[in-house]
Amino acid sequence: MENPIESNSDSELPTRLEVVFDQDAGHVRKSSLISADADAPRLSRRHADQRIDSACFVHALLEQPEALQLGRVSGENGTKGTTKSPFSQLGDYVPHVIQSRLLTKRQLSDMAWNVRALSKKLGSVKMKLNVRSVFILTKPQEQCLVLLTRQVTRWLLSKDRDQPYTIYVEKRLEDDEQFDAAGLHEEEASAKGRLKYWDLDLVKKKPQTFDFIVTLGGDGTVLYASWLFQQVVPPVLSFALGSLGFLTNFDFERYQSTLETAFRDGVTVSLRLRFECTIMRSRPRPNQVGQRDLVEELIGEESDDDTTHHPDKMFQILNDVVVDRGPNPSTHASPYP
Q1: How many CB atoms lie under 10 A from the CB of residue 97?
Q2: Which InterPro entries match (predicted)?
Q3: pLDDT value at position 45?
Q4: Is the pTM of this model over 0.85?
């Protein structure tokens, strides 16, 4: 995923977003996915209109740039527009109320079509963000990566950078001897007030504060970043420092040139589809007689009856999910005469 929290003022939020359309990169093979209502293989007007109401937030950025005051670049000689980042318009992010969203087959087909079309368009888009705050996520419980985290942090905090970045590292590193936060402030006097620390509560309440995510680890670290950012997800750039590297495309040895290029020239975004999983809790019935049919309650005639179950928690899943049935998953009661 080649992409791009305690904030006390709006000045730390990004103020510019530049989108560049590469005319030559949009030519790909004909899509093999055909919409249920489409008579031709090309995107129908109905699907283009439905993007506005799609759950994919980026659709609004690509199809209605005037709504967010995005500037488009047409060709190499086009005029570059300057704009506020979409994250800056979110204000104080408030997680939405948990509500189960059971989709029909038609809705799933439409969503798959929209995601496919969006992914195709993102392949020809280079996003130039005015990055000011960088979120660094280090592989948990890997003490050998602490020194590398310090190395990247010091480089980003250096006065030699194009602009003063605000760097967020995990809270546990604040008192870590190897990270040596006090030493960082002594080595980089200009870093005062720009080295901050994030925790789970900060990420949950203010995810829009971060402009860019840098992960140091393997695929598990990228999945951990997806779990941390359940709704708003900044662009993620991953350096390969773990055992698996299917999602980590960048070599850490060249981290300086990689980050400079990303911040200066922009990044091409690769869209990743996530599943939204809802945990349903059963509502007790005072006059219940006999066993209840779970399938009937969830997808049968009683599926629209909110008295049987209620949504408890929702999770955005990038790659996989493990369902734990408890310490005794195979235990059951058997009546004997």
Answers
A1: 6
A2: ATP-NAD_kinase_N, NAD/diacylglycerol_kinase_sf, NADK
A3: 45
A4: no
CA distances (Å), origin 119, targets 72, 85, 184: 18, 20, 41
Which two three-digit tokens encode residue 325? 């049935």
Backbone angles phi, psi at 190, to 5 degrees: -75, -5
Integer Cα distance of 283 and 301 in angstroms: 17
- Every domain of the chain and the residues it spans: 13-128, 132-262, 275-317
Sorting pLDDT into bands at 50, 70 and 90, what band is 36? very low
Q: Distance between alpha carbon 129 and the CA centroid of its chain, in Å?
A: 16
**Shortest CA distance to 318 belongs to which of 268, 247, 213, 242?**
247
What is the second-level CATH architecture of the domain 132-262? 3-Layer(aba) Sandwich (3.40)
Q: Token pair of 324, please?
A: 């734990």
In this prediction, residue 209 carries a pLDDT of: 93
To the nearest 10 degrees (0 to 180), the angle between helices 146-157 and 255-265 is 40
5-9, 111-115, 258-262: segment of lowest average pLDDT = 5-9
129: closest CA among 277, 40, 16, 241?
A: 16
Kindly state the percentage of the chain with pLDDT values over 70: 59
